[in-house]
Amino acid sequence: MALFFLVAMYPAHAQEPRQVIQHFQDVLLETMKRATELGAAGRYKQLRPEVEKAFDLPRMIRLASGTAWAEAGADKQKALIDAFTHMSTSTYASQFHGYSGESFIIADVHDGPRNTRLVETKIVKSDGEKIPITYVLIAAENGDWRIGDVLLDNSISELSVRRSEYAAILRKDGVDALIKTLNEKAEGLMSAN
Question: Chain centroid to CA 127: how far?
Fold first, then answer.
């Protein structure tokens, strides 16, 4: 009985960065293979909980929205997180809309700057072309590793691109406009597929 309580008190060992990415890529691959059957809405439904589990979306939108985050207040911060999650999931659901023999490989895992771990991966297309993607993982206080940024071609920070894009919207029209823009972009991505 005492052993049961000890096990219940302590969560299972947190996944290492490689495991986080491997699981996420496995879900992406399965979604791609069932893309036609699932349709856009089904891909979204399948991917949303996985995107929320793999990515530190609240931290990402906080960083991407800069000083506007602190000025937004709790309700608008929640709306920003929801809109960013909606847009992020819609992006994956629209980009991974079919399967033609692609695969994912994890090439390397190593330490990154500021206590991060970098997981270097490649999408291998059916013609053999390899597209490099590096995931930047950050350890949460509870020991879980979550994706905090994605480097396309191992150099272009998705978070930096978003921060630049969002800064213009925030400067001109404020937080409500960014929330609206993110939701509209998400809906546009879903309707295109």
Answer: 26
In 139-172, which positions are buried (b, 16+ CB within 10 angstroms) versus exposed (e)? Answer: beeeeebbbbbbbeeeeeebbeebbeebbebbee
Given a contact cutoff of 8 angstroms between Cβ atoms, the answer to whether 35 and 47 are in contact is: no
**Residue type at 186 in one-letter notation:** A
Q: List per-block mean pLDDT (blocks of 10 residues) for the chain, which spans 193 residues.
A: 37 77 97 95 97 96 95 96 98 94 96 95 94 94 91 90 95 96 96 80
> CA 133, CA 107: separation in Å to the nearest integer?
10
* Domains detected in the chain: 14-192 (3.10.450.710)
- pTM above 0.85? yes
Angle between helices 158-173 and 175-192 (to 10 degrees): 130
Residues in CB range of 187: below 8 A, 6 or more apart: 90
Q: What is the CA radius of gyration of the chain?
A: 18
Residue with tokens 């879903």: 190
Give the max Cα distance, the chain.
61
Rounded Cα distance between 79 and 176, Å, is: 9
- The residue with tokens 């406009």 is 177
